[in-house]
Structure formats: structure tokens, C-alpha cells
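Inputs:
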Amino acid sequence: MAASSFFTEFPHLLTPSAPIEAPWLSRCATQVAPDLLGCLLVRQFPDGTCLRSVIVETEAYTPGDPACHAYRRRTTRNAIMFGPAGFTYVYLIYGMYHCLNVVTDVDGAPSAVLLRALQLETVAAIANPRQEKPHRVAAGPGKLCRALELNLSHTAQPLQPDRALWLEHRPPSLDTPLQSEAIAITQTTRIGLTQGADRPWRWYISDSPAVSRR
DNA sequence: TACGGGATCTGT
DNA sequence: CAGATCCCGTAA
């Protein structure tokens, strides 16, 4: 299967790939965010079933970034961002949606990557009451957490295999130089911000139908 | 203790 | 384009 069709078509039959470890995430969020495109997010539900998905849209939030929740100071909510990489940062937005971040960079550098959209391997395993098109079910940070049933109990959790959430590297079939060239990435400014809106720190897989917005 | 803003989504 | 809905940071 060509790399391009992998992202434009429904990614059935995703197979396990090598887990992403903390050191790989211990880089600047603006480096990690585009690197996470094409990687897999695995959700293990309380009953033990796993749902795999392809990360297709991300945003970076860094130290010194006025849009970053850790911009002002360390608080109870953002404390996890100040620690080492490899943990989740989940927060409640507008009283009804949650957003999932991956903590990045070294200990003491508060930063994270917001996961904005996923292409799920299958929607048969999750509730889809609105009968949405499968590739739109996780198209947006709030919808993503709704689909994966993530809430505040999932913040500050380590991203490790056999936990509630973990990351895996791009499938080997996509990791060769030739095929990676087929993964066109678009870089734009971030969505919905009142501060720091000028920084071009949003990335998405250009031809993915699961991207939240163009 | 009180107040109000917010990295969203949906239907009109 | 307005409304839903609530945690938490900030000020008092």
C-alpha cells in the first residue's frame, strides 16, 4: 500500500509498532509535534480492549509561549508540564470538552504537544450516536477525547504500553525515506487562540480527511 | 470566597 | 454566530 493511500483511506489493520519512549519526547515541542504525525496513539479502555489510531494533526506549546497554559507560573493544573516528557496533560475546556496533550522537552521546560485529530482504525469499537463519517469522529481536540473517553482522570499519566494510553512510532512501511516523502505535511498558525496566534506551530498531514479544519 | 475566561463543538 | 457548561487562576 502506498503511503498516501494509507492516510486518505481508512487505516484498517493497524499492527503494533515500537513504543515511543520518553527520551524521544524529551525535545522541543516544535520538533516533536511534526514528528508525531503518522505515529500511532493507542487507547486501552477499562475493559482491556485497545483502539489504535493515526495522529494526523498536532500543535506545539512551549516555554515563553503566551498561549501555553504554563506561560505564567506553575499551578495545580499545569504542574505536569513542568516535569519530564512522556506524560499526559488533559484539561477541561469550555466546561464540556477535554483536550489531550503529550508533555515534551526536558524536566523543567514546561511544554507540550496538543493532539488535535486522529484517524481511528475503526469506529465499530466506539460509540457514534451522531452517525458521523468515520474519519470525522476524532477530527478536533474535543472530539478526539470524546471518542477515546478521556477525562481529567487521565491527566498526569505515563504514556507506556499496557496503560490507558501510549504512543508508537510510525509503522515500518511508512518509515523508509522514499515513502516518507509521500507524507506531505502542512504547517499553519494554531487554532482558536487569543494570544500567541501568530506562531506557526500547527502541523497536519496534508491529505488526511480527519484534519479538524483547513 | 467570588468572579469570569477558555488550546471547543454544534445547530441555526 | 450564539449557546452550552465548569474547572481553575486570579484578585479580594
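Residues 59, 61, 67-69, 91-97, 99, 101, 114, 116, 130, 140-143, 146, 190-194 of chain A lie near DNA strand B (CB under 10 Å from a C1'). Flag for discussion at group meeting.
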